[in-house]
Amino acid sequence: MQKDLEKINGIDGGNLIYSMWEGYLQKSNTKKFVDYLIKRNFTIHKIHTSGHADIMTLKRMVEAIKPKNIVPIHTFEGDEYKEIFTGTKVVRIKDNEVVTID
């Protein structure tokens, strides 16, 4: 991921929502990545989740955060996001595709 993030202009000061078990943060590769983000002035939010969110939870999250864009990942239903999240731009990305998101 770090290689991908290094190519994005204006990403400094972003947010990382870390939702996995906090013990993984002690692994050297994960720690190195988080340290990299901290050096780029990221704010790290540790919010543990237990599995995949359902549609209602995703909708509540989008309403609360009000993102400019939604990029569906790790889902079989990514094409349906445009119908589900009608007030937010949905950006679909194929494997190995490079895109610019404003």
Describe this structure in words.
By secondary structure, the protein is an alpha/beta fold. It has 2 domains: 1-51, no CATH class; 52-94, no CATH class. The mean pLDDT is 89. The strands form 2 sheets. It has a two-stranded parallel ribbon. It is globular and about 40 Å long. The protein has 4 helices and 4 strands; from the N terminus they run H-E-H-E-H-E-H-E. 31% of the residues lie in helices and 12% in strands.
SSE sequence, one letter per element:
HEHEHEHE
Structural class: alpha/beta
Q: Which sheet architecture does the biggest sheet show? A: 2 strands, parallel
Helix content: 25-40%
Main features:
two-stranded parallel sheet, 4 helices, 4 strands, single chain, globular, 102 residues, alpha/beta
Secondary structure: elements and pairs:
Elements: H1 2-6, E1 15-18, H2 28-39, E2 43-46, H3 55-65, E3 69-70, H4 81-84, E4 89-90
Parallel strand pairs: 1-2, 3-4
Tell me briefly what this model is.
The protein is an alpha/beta fold and 102 residues long. The protein contains four helices and four strands. It folds into two domains: 51 residues, no CATH class; 43 residues, no CATH class.
